[in-house]
Amino acid sequence: MAGDVLTADFKAAPYWWDLAPRPDITDAAPPKEAEVAIVGAGNVGLSAALTLARRGREAVVLDAEAAGHGASTRNAGYLGRQVWHKYGDMVPKLGRERAAEVCRAAIAAHDYAASLIETEQIACFYRNTGRFIAAPSKRVFDGLARDLAMMREDGVPVDAEMIEPADAPPAYRKGHYHGGQILRGNGTIHAGLYHAGLLERAARDGAGIVGHCPVQAIEREGSGFRISTPRGAVKAGHVIVATNGYTPRAAQWLRRRVVPVDAFMIATEPLPEDRIEHIAPGGRPMVEHRYSPCWIRPNEDGTRILFGGLSAEPPADLTQKARILRDAMVRIVPALEGVKISHCWTGKTAFTFDMMPHTGNHDGVEYAMGWCGSGVPMGTYLGHKTALRVLGDPESRSAFDGRPFPTWPFYTGRPWFLPLAVAWNKRKDRKLFRG
Ligand SMILES: Cc1cc2nc3c(=O)[nH]c(=O)nc-3n(C[C@H](O)[C@H](O)[C@H](O)COP(=O)(O)OP(=O)(O)OC[C@H]3O[C@@H](n4cnc5c(N)ncnc54)[C@H](O)[C@@H]3O)c2cc1C
After folding, report:
1. Ligand 1 atom with the shortest distance to the CA of 68
2. What does the domain layout of the chain look like in residue ranges?
3. Which end of the chain, N or C, is less surrounded by CB atoms within 10 Å?
4. Residues flanking ligand 1, CB < 6 Å
């Protein structure tokens, strides 16, 4: 039965883990004391740990599971230069000056991550491919063009061009998209190798990494904190919470401010090079410009196609999910009919109530989370900035400082409303596709 669309060796696990398996750091006990305790060993926690370790600070990173269990090794590996919001939507809320500042920060985040890859020589197949933003309709196409003109007017250094429907990649089902936009300067990486590179550099420079050590409580003790885990407590001068879509009850104030959303991905079996080039010319990945987007990209060496999307459904059965995603992929790229799926996986990404990333300090606890789809570059960058804040370095300043971190009354961190929100987004998306 599975033989129809799944390969015989199908894995319900991230494709990235084949080349970058999760490190099994189970034996190390947490230290009794550390200058800084970091909760969460994703890209954000490790980026903060690397910066602290480089400045000679004693940092320990605690993760509830194996380091990298979270979205950092499950994502699509897009290294973008933008935030979730359209520029035109940010301007009425923030004003033109601040909206432009946020866009520049997103570019700085990309550039920080890209230069880290280069200077640290992290072998993660980074490619500066650009990105194709697919427009579901002429209305969206026109909106993208207006946004681009406005950003240019305000001096945002965005490098992009509009792509008429006739010039869009020919592999997409005819008429499915009304062209779109190419955003230059965006890149792709192998998500697992990027995380493994950060982990290796942070550990090599002296950061302690302790897996399978869930933080159960964060309490004030003297001028610092007591971090409780089942394997002993850590007394720390500072604490950074970097748990994004996995934020636990131990950080309830933050948990109430992020909305975890399950995202799903599939990888195809290996395909001939010319077929991949036809679907993603120049290795360029695609993302749809809509409320509940799908995305498609070649893998790190251009031998497979990876496809994904967001969902409100719990990740119950990944073989079933693989079939659903495969069908969605073939609806967009008919040339992939008959291709088998080798991997299907899921991860939790986090959105916020204002759809902006947040970093700051609440009751002494430092945090960086709520990436709204751009956590790979933005998380690396703001993890670094959070570490600089702990060090009292004025370079810690970013466009996201001092912003209130909103929540909803009665929201406790369990997003019961998500199926409704997704249904609402689907309704809005249907309208977008109708133009
Ligand atoms: C399928 C998918 C595709 C995505 N694609 C992209 C993309 O292409 N580009 C992009 O920029 N973003 C993408 N994202 C989002 C991006 O992956 C995340 O925003 C980013 O990786 C978050 O990093 P993080 O370090 O904040 O959190 P995570 O990597 O999620 O790490 C959080 C960690 O906290 C740990 N934790 C939880 N509770 C505790 C506790 N009590 N004690 C200790 N540790 C705890 C978890 O075990 C986990 O390891 C995607 C996400 C998904 C799921």
Report:
1. 49
2. 2-434
3. N
4. 39-45, 62-65, 69-72, 74-78, 80, 214-215, 242-246, 248, 250, 263, 265, 308, 347, 349, 369, 371, 373-377, 379
